């Protein structure tokens, strides 16, 4: 990566491999250099109600998230996180944590409606290939919320994200396809390349194509 | 703000003397070297002169030098060109697992077209054993491609010994100098710091380019031993003795020759100036920051390369923090690669996945001063402390990274997505 600073103080980063330019917004910079709601010390017993941890499918990074919920109001009163991730992961998680906890905290159901794009809009944009970094926070949050639902015996509220098998022969699920799209695959060939397999069941092709379109729309649309 | 450019392995600024040499060819000397009239002839003369200069530095004949559009094209021409020309003699290639993508992906492309390849593995220091190269040779091998110095970890490979191993193998099999297998070396990173006399090295083909030696970008050279057949990869008007069609880039060629001449003249002085600075930076980082691993052999490395894995932090985030303090560096982290794959070179050292993520490369150059190094040593510890406070990863450290407990990452350091996939499969199995 080659980077230099322009006179107006906005850093412009150019990725030497992709040539992609990224003039990151002041908001991204602010959250990257001054992340909000970081958990600096280890979580103390009873300090939080639930915890969620995920690894990014795309680049192997990790996200931890802790939440505290007000049982009566169902609002999230505190959310802390830690990540082993790139600048975009740090900035987008910081922004996500702020959105969830601002104005007295969001209701769980509303917080679950925040999409990675909503975080991006508030950040003033991220490069396309960095979209999966903001999904990291989203997933960790869902895990934490599920843990909370289980811990408080609200089993009916647990979100089940079941993977559905699309290609019977190779056991490829919709999750696999989602991950491939998040890693940047745009076509059926690229998805196959990412999954390191061909398509075993020709009957599955139309559905795979449809899913690629769906996830492209969801994350990049 | 102070700016400290420490990414000379990515590219170097163009030397003003090189720019001056190129200047006329952007202006009045614009002629096409293939043209008959004086204006064209003058361009042709300039290219001939440049070719002679390059040949003098490499210790070969002018007819053994072909100009290309850069290191990548030279690698492609060497590998594809020799493989195709000697197809009838065999379709096996030998290379290593730490090559630049220009070599690695060319070999992979040939594998898709019916060639087979053996990837000799580097040891934990990032070095290649010449005996392993010899052991990989088969009667069907037509080309061996082993880099001279590694672009990421800076290790200088024993090119001379590798050339000897290949030669000895050929002798044993009663093969002459002009029988395959041939040895190609990508010397792009080495040219500024190592011996590049091709006769002394004993290589058959050698790649170099302008952008790493304070020359212009977009121009490269391929040395090829007289008598070795090469199939062109670019077809057209038959320039460069039919090996590389397309109107010659006169300005760039003149600039490359000038840059190479300067590099050769300043090689020794520059190497002795940079070595202590390199060692100061390495020692300073090791001394001030806990949990750091050096990537690549300590001594058998380029005088300008420092590559360390600073555990528990992610490299791209570190680069952005460094950038905010005016320092330009590079990383082998997956987050900074177009494919989201971590550096294959760091992984080849036998280090776990997280070490590649945490790797930071500083490459020094002509502009680097001791104050620059002091400045980096001043700001880096704070940046690392900050990023470590953000990171949930806390690897157990044994100094080598061989028995690290892979807590943060699943499946013995394998990428997450692989294991995620098997997880979701099991999960899906349970869903009716
Ligand atoms: S977390 Fe790896 S690219 Fe963003």
TrEMBL record, chain A:
Domain of life: Bacteria
Classification via SUPFAM superfamilies: SufE/NifU (SSF82649)
Stored Gene3D superfamilies: 3.90.1010.10, BFD-like [2Fe-2S]-binding domain
Gene Ontology molecular function: any one: iron-sulfur cluster binding
Protein name: NIF system FeS cluster assembly NifU N-terminal domain-containing protein
Organism: Candidatus Uhrbacteria bacterium RIFCSPHIGHO2_02_FULL_57_19
NIF system FeS cluster assembly NifU N-terminal domain segment(s): 24-152
Xref: InterPro entries: BFD-like_2Fe2S-bd_dom_sf, NIF_FeS_clus_asmbl_NifU_N
Biological process annotations from GO: iron-sulfur cluster assembly
Pfam families: NifU_N (PF01592)
From TrEMBL, chain B:
UniProt-recorded Gene Ontology molecular function terms: cysteine desulfurase activity; iron-sulfur cluster binding; metal ion binding
InterPro entries assigned to the protein according to its UniProt record, in alphabetical order: Aminotrans_V_dom, Cysteine_dSase, PyrdxlP-dep_Trfase, PyrdxlP-dep_Trfase_major, PyrdxlP-dep_Trfase_small
This protein's UniProt keywords: Iron, Iron-sulfur, Metal-binding, Pyridoxal phosphate, Transferase
Transferase in keyword set: yes
Entry cofactors: pyridoxal 5'-phosphate
Name of the protein in its database record: Aminotransferase class V domain-containing protein
Catalytic reactions on record: (sulfur carrier)-H + L-cysteine = (sulfur carrier)-SH + L-alanine
Keyword Iron: yes
Aminotransferase class V domain sequence ranges: 4-376
Record Pfam families: Aminotran_5
Taxonomic superkingdom: Bacteria
Span of the signal peptide: none
Family: Belongs to the class-V pyridoxal-phosphate-dependent aminotransferase family. NifS/IscS subfamily.
